Structure formats: structure tokens, C-alpha cells
Amino acid sequence: MSVIAEQLSIKYGQTVAVDQVSFEAQAGQITVLLGPNGAGKTSTIEHLEGYRAASSGSSSVLGLDPIADHHKLTAQVGIMLQQGGIPTAIRPRELLQQYAGFFPDSLDPEDLLASVGLTDRSKTPYRRLSGGEQQRLSLAIALIGKPKVVFLDEPTAGVDLEGRDLIRSLLLALRQEGVCVLITTHDLAETERLADKVIIIDHGKVIAQGSPTELMSATSSDHLLFGATPNLDCAALSAAVGSQASETSHGEYRVEAPPSPALVAAVTSWLAAQNIQLTDLRAERQRLDDVFRRLTDGTQS
Amino acid sequence: MNAFRSQVRTELALSSRQGEQLLVSLGIPLLILVFFSTIDLLPTGTDKPIDFLAPGVLALAVMSTAMVSLGIGTGFERTYGVLKRLGASPLGRGRWVMAKIATVIVIEVIQWVVLISASILLGWSPPLSGWVCAIAGALLGTAAFSGLGLLMAGTLPGLATLAAANGLYLILLLTGGMIIPLSELPAPLAAVAKVFPAAPLAEIIIGSLTVGGNVASWAWVSLTCWALIAPLGAALLFRWE
Predict the structure, then answer these.
(1) What is the predicted ipTM?
(2) Which of A93, A264, B53, B234 lies 20 to 30 angstroms, CA to CA, from A289?
């Protein structure tokens, strides 16, 4: 396992930012720490990057202690801070050449400029780059040392759609190469598209974790919807399928039970017996944002 | 070694691009040198103002680069998270500090070459024997003022460092015996000035590079103390974020 956090707690004075968080992230996977702002995501990732000591619990990155063995990890770990970290007057090519010099084995700065789409902007001072270009440059220096683990704090914040596509394809390429990718975000759509594993954090605690599919099915839909001829005998239908059925609007029906294959078969055979035309049948899939809102009490998104 | 060289190259490239830093490190000393040696306004206590001003601005150059440029530059790097980000790279603190020192010394050498050339053109002829002591003083001064610059950069917000470093620079410029001899200051002010690192630095460089001059021993004692205490204070109190 590339990254392990076990019962990790981080306090700032009396404030508990991270409260007994446990999770694992493995090589060749994209693991997403998902949660609202202030949930403790940045504190967690900055602990793993070696910036913040834990007040209790333990953690390891590539089998080493992220704080005590920080100097042994720097050549194997790539990071992207949530903001800043780059001199305002520096030019992208200079920055990549600078960081390339820090690593025994690095990517070629020109190739990397091309893959983050900044070749045309290689001589533009950092402060004059757009927000998205700044984020892509920041990602580039996370990748330049051919890391085994990358920690990216809100990598797509402030990035336009095109930039997001580019960042996403870079992250998928890292996964392909067997890199362990750990990302924080509060962006649900991004998470659903990228994550192999999601850890949902709120108020410093892990409230759910698993693959997006597992999370969505764990709290799967509890009803079946269908459309048919109006004014069906709902009492008879309810009796036939063994669950409460009702007509929610003209010709739209709802059966209050998880949409199991048996329920679908029961409903369709009842309709077939009376030769009623079915116009629509939906076992509404839960979206990750439904799960997220439910778990975080829908207070934030 | 590669990481160190890479960092020095970046530091030099960024320094050369900061207009205001170039103004402080070269523009102001050059202006003082040329203006006041041509127009004898300052009470330099010599017949040829250049004999006092030339070594005086060499001391000033050390103070401006080691304290003002280094302090302000590093202060903003800290504010913008540049130091935080470097902390996660394999560069390491030791090589980072070495790169900062090397950058300061490279800039000082350039300043001295320019200022000495200009001074010689203006008729300055310092005693050759004085250079060893002058360079030793400049190195002690670099340690002292770098320590002060990094102390401010590592404890104050970027803008506060800017204000503090520039304010201290102006005060020490006027009271440090660099362009106005200490003997021209009121005695109590001169006594206080000797406690700060500017006056001993100026005393050493001017005393060494003046024909028939000598360096008072208080200057070596005071500057050596600063060269030890200021970097130690910076090392102990510097906060990276």
C-alpha cells in the first residue's frame, strides 16, 4: 500500500481539524478525498506531504514516516499546493528547469511544457498566466521528478473546461503508469469521473469510503418509476407486487421498494396480464452528489 | 551539487529581474558616489570626497544586498508559499541557505566591480594593502546583514518586511558612517550607531581603504558579534510558512 493513514488526528490548538481518519491509497489508483471546504482535507494531505505533525495516530508514505523521513521521500513524492508556491516573476520554462535540477532523474522540461499545454506560454511570468495555466504549471512541477506518489490539493480549482480535460487525461496517464494519485476536491462531477476510490470527509471525520459504484449502491434507490395508461388500479397493483404503488401524476407511477429484478418482473407481468402498454421504466440510479448530500446532511456541497 | 546550481541560477535570474532590487543594490550607491563626489555637499572630512565615499558605498552595497534585497525577496517568497513548496522538493534547507548566500555574494561582487571601476574613474586610489581587511569586513558584514534580512523575512509578513528593511536601510544609511562620518554626528547618536552593524562595517572598509587609515578595534568586535548573533537568531526564529 503506497499511502496509509491510521486513526490520524490533527489539532490546531483546541480545534480538531482531522479526527481519527483512516484510509489507504494504492499504486495505480486515483484516490479522492472528497468533502466540503473546511472538512480537514488539506490538513490531512499536508500531513502526508510532511508539513503538519499529527497529534495522534500514524501514517506512512511508501513505507516511510512522512514527517520523520521527509528528506527520504522528497525525491519520490510530487505535490501540488492548494495555492501559490511559485515566484510571481518566474517563467514556466525556468521553473521547470529549476525543479528538474533538483531530481536525479527527471522528465524533460520541454516535453512536460508540451504535455501541460504551456509551450506557448513558456516565457510568460507566472503572475500573468491565467488561473488555469497557473494550476497546470503547478501540476507540472509535481510530476517532473517522476514521482511514485502524487498529492494534489484541489488540482482543478479555477481551471476552465479544456484545462480540466487536460488535467484529467494527465492523471489517468499517471494511474496507467502505476503512480499512486491522491487528490482532494469538493467537486463531485470530477470525483465521479476520476476516482477509483472515494473517501468522504466531513467535520474532520471519514463518513464513508469505497469505489464510486460501491458508494452509490450502498445507498441505492428505494423506488421504481414507470409510465403507463392513466388511472390504473393502484390498489390491485400494490397487492400484486407486495409493495405500495401510487400514481404520482397523470400516467406516472411509483412503487415504493428497491428496484430488484423480482420487483421489475412482478410489475411488468401484472401489466402484461392486463395488456397495458408500458411507456417508460426507471430504476433511478443514485448520483454521487445524492450520496454526498445525504451523508453531509445536505448542509454544503 | 546539481540542485544547488539549479537554485542559484534561478535566484540570480529572479534578482536580475527585480527593478526595485537593482535600484537599491546598484542605482542608489552609484548615484550617491557620482553625485556627492562631484558636488562636495557632504561633510566627508576629506579634501577629496571620493576617498571617503568610495569605500563608504562599498559598505552600503553590502548592507543593501545582504539585508534589503535578501530580506525583501525572501519575505515575499515566504508569503507566496515559495519556501513551503521548495520544502517539499529534494533541494533541502541546507542547500537553500547556501544558494541564498552564494547569490548574495555573486551580486556583491558585481556591485563592487561596478562601484570600484566608477570610483577609480572618479580619481580614487586606495592602498592595495587594505583589500584583505576590507574583504574580511565585507564577509562579516554579509553574515550580519543576511542574518538580519532573514530574521525579518522569516518572522514578519512580506509587506512588513519590505517596510522594516527599507526603514532600517535608510536609518543605517544616514547614521552608519557610510556617507556621513560618525565624527560628524552628535556624540550620543554616534555612540548608539556603533552598536548597530552598519557603523562597524563602514569603519572597517573605510579604515582599510584609506591611505594612512586604520580600523578601530571596537568595529571588529561589534561586527563579529553581529555576524554570529544575527544568523543564529534567524536560524532559531525563522518560520517557513
Answers:
(1) 0.89
(2) A264
